[in-house]
Amino acid sequence: MSDMSVQECMCCGEPLERVRYFPRQLLTADDMRCEDEYFREKLRRHNRFLHGWGVVCGCTVEPVIEAKTPTVRVCPGYVVGPQGDEILIDCCIEVDLKTGPTDQPCAVRWPCPPTGDVPVARDGKATVYIAVRYAECFSRPVRVHPAGCGCDETGCEYSRVRDSFEIKVLWQLPQSHLDAQKDDEAWCATVHQMTPEMARRRHLFPVPPCPACDSDPWVVLATVTLALNPDPANTNPVNVNYKDRRVLLATQRLQVAVLCMP
Predict the structure, then answer these.
(1) pLDDT in tens for each of the 262 residues of the chain?
(2) Is residue 119 within 8 Å of residue 126, measured between CB atoms?
(3) How far apart, in Å, are the Cα atoms of 123 and each of 93, 117, 127, 165, 227?
(4) SS3 for 180-225, per residue?
(5) Element (H, E) at 5
(6) How large is the C-alpha radius of gyration of the chain?
(7) What are the sequence ranges of the domains in the chain?
(8) CA–CA separation, 225 vs 25, rounded Å?
(9) Per the confidence metrics, is the pTM higher than 0.85?
(10) How many whole angstroms separate alpha carbon 256 and alpha carbon 258?
(11) How far, in Å, CA of 129 to CA of 97, rounded?
């Protein structure tokens, strides 16, 4: 079998298992986690296979004019990640383009960006990407009941896992976007080769392959161009555009678009 045939026979994901309950069953924390992961993974698979991924609504990125350093503000919005995770940005986050976000719910301390590898144009401007990914935080700490006679010291454990997000300044376009662009172009080329007769006979419509397993979690919200040596007379050295943003239109928006067509 050729490599292409093997690729077409592969589908991202593994068979899911859920807990089978029966009388006098001893349930443990592992069983509860298995039950939780079953439904979470089904939702991820549903989002990834049926809807795709990208920015659904909001997530506007705008320059912060009054900031002393090049800074942008990410506004609230809703995103579906490449793995099917739902990402809700529920507050405005200011992002310093040189040091990263100043405050966000689930922050990870990243090393400083490699300034020597930053692509700089001839006009002295650099291009960066404001991206978001799904993240989790532990919350609501509670006391753990001691074992035995109760004389031991009581420990503390977090009782909740909070769905959150992480915003980062990337110096290269994520691999997830590059792969998705190639897949979109290949699918468009296949559709364009169809004749009107093939389009009328729906059973001849090409069936797209399943999405590939993508380990890159980042979704680009905006592409930002900034001057590394800005002119003091220029009050806005930051330019924001959405040319690399991957948009995922909601079903209602698609219905309205069809109804508005002449």
Answers:
(1) 334 344 445 566 778 889 999 999 999 989 999 999 999 999 999 999 999 999 999 999 999 988 888 889 999 999 999 999 999 999 999 998 877 776 776 766 555 554 445 555 555 678 899 999 999 888 888 888 776 665 656 678 888 888 999 999 998 999 999 989 988 888 888 777 776 666 666 556 667 778 777 888 999 999 999 876 666 655 567 889 999 999 999 988 888 988 887 7
(2) yes
(3) 29, 17, 12, 34, 8
(4) HHHHHHHHHHHHHCCCHHHHHCHHHCCCCCCCCCCCCCCEEEEEEE
(5) helix 3-9
(6) 24
(7) 27-111+122-142+153-252
(8) 60
(9) no
(10) 5
(11) 9
* Residues whose CB is less than 8 angstroms from the CB of residue 249 and which lie 6 or more positions away in sequence, other chains included: 56, 257
Handedness of CA 205, 251, 91, 65 (dihedral sign): positive
Residue in 93, 57, 92 with CA at minimum distance from that of residue 78: 57
